[in-house]
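Duplicate of earlier report; Isocitrate lyase input re-posted below.
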Amino acid sequence: MSDYKKAIDAVASLKAANGAPWEAINPEYAARMKVQNRFKTGLDIARYTAKIMRQDMAEYDADSSQYTQSLGCWHGFIGQQKLIAIKKHFGTTNKRYLYLSGWMIAALRSEFGPLPDQSMHEKTSVPALIEELYTFLRQADAREMGGLFRALDDAREAGDAAKEAELQDKIDNFQTHVVPIIADIDAGFGNEEATYLLAKKMIEAGACAIQIENQVSDEKQCGHQDGKVTVPHADFLAKIRAVRYAFLELGVDDGVIVARTDSLGAGLTKQIAVTNEPGDLGDLYNAFLDGDYVNSADDIANGDVVVKANGKLLKPKRLASGLFQFKKGSGEDRCVLDCITSLQNGADLLWIETEKPHVGQIGGMVSRIREVIPNAKLVYNNSPSFNWTLNFRQQVFDAWTEEGKDVSAYDRANLMSVEYDETDLAIEADRRIQSFQRDASREAGIFHHLITLPTYHTAALSTDNLAKEYFGEAGMLGYVAGVQRKEIRQGIACVKHQNMAGSDMGDDHKEYFSGDAALKASGKDNTMNQFG
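Output:
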């Protein structure tokens, strides 16, 4: 028996038990409202989506072509439209997630106004956006199922048994728009207790996967900016454990932790690690410090700090800011150590923030990590901070040069120029961009590909195009030709914006509650009828 039929029978039994006061309750209407909203709490969502992620991770381990993807969304409506589009174009949401970007919360959702990605926004904005995203995804479920229910009623009224059976099958096998969210907790917004408290709120809002980075909370910088400061491993591992405790406390036993290392581009640390014996994690961390070895107290000036590292006395270089500096060129070794350590201490997935999208560079680090952790896998930021066109054209230029091909027709520093767009080099670069996710998942251990802030850029681009046309010579045609006509022809559901906002669902409910007395908005004078 389907969940829909079970729900009808359950309400029918309740109605019978409650007698005359429930006479006006229609069991099928009540069942429809129940199946339209299968997730009653954020924790229901977190438990459901955690299982999806765990299954996807296992399938990727067996076959690297089974990678997953997401786009960052800064508003519930954007996330909703993304999932509606995915279902429309591909018929399934399988292996498609949402990403919640701390960068976009800072830039777009803070009460302070637009902020840089430096953990200055309200921490409550993070769980609030998770809750908002899932509210809109659940509304997408209710909207789509409401359409199926109305069609089912029409088929019954017309006596079309075949159509009724077809619609009943779609209802019984409905795939929800609710998918996993990988949610950015930055560097934890404070100490490990602060991290735990915020993680709980995020999980309660629906997050099944939390991404945390090894930067200092109060020095946090965007991963693609300068001035990043990392913490010793012990500090970071305490926060990983804090997130795990939050998952376990709330009964999301298979929650996913993504450990992000910024060490590749971070040349600074705020503190010298505590070490108890040679070769422990603190000692390994301190061994990367840049400085001068000293032989006597005469080599030490007032206020200098000295640490024993590599069996010698080292005077680390300290900047005017009080921060200590790592050795130049040590980033990759530190990054690999971070990753191994995180996986050995409770993290499930890795995030390596790189300065360019290069499969060979990423794969080289992952190979070293997999020597210790064979099933290590990454979440990777296909970042808008990369100039993808220039990067890949230069990669092709360098590869062709190494192969001995003639590249004299190209200026490597100017390869972004439109004059190269139709050349063989540009075509090959675009081919590599197109296959980047497949290649990197196969060769560099990337389980999940995401773009952190794509919808920030699409909103800006589409608004620029509309403003240019509408306020220019095109006038109203700028909107009609550039937006509405495309919506109609591409089957964008939002062209019926009243329906998308819930008007038809409201009419359904009014009918459930008031019967023939319901005052409905979807009558013949509703201008939305112009869109069929």
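Residues 1-37 form one domain.

Merging into the original ticket.
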